[in-house]
Write a structure and sequence with these properties.
The mean pLDDT is 85. The N and C termini lie far apart (58 Å). The chain is mainly alpha-helical and 57 residues long. The chain is built from two helices and no strands.
Length: 57
């Protein structure tokens, strides 16, 4: 019969995030998503991106 593996100790860099750190990460994600949405809303940007993708083939 096998013995269960001993619990592993957490690594030194794996400290839990504080509340303000978690909020800052979510705020950064929201800002990045808003910027990407604003780029896609510009028709000139979309045409330029389509030209770049088409040039790859």
């Amino acid at each position: 019969m096998q013995q269960p593996a001993p619990p592993t100790a957490p690594t030194a860099g794996a400290a839990p995030l504080r509340g303000w750190q978690r909020a800052a990460i979510w705020l950064l994600v929201a800002v990045l998503l808003a910027l990407v949405f604003m780029l896609y809303a510009q028709s000139e940007f979309m045409v330029q991106m389509a030209d770049h993708v088409w040039a790859c083939f």
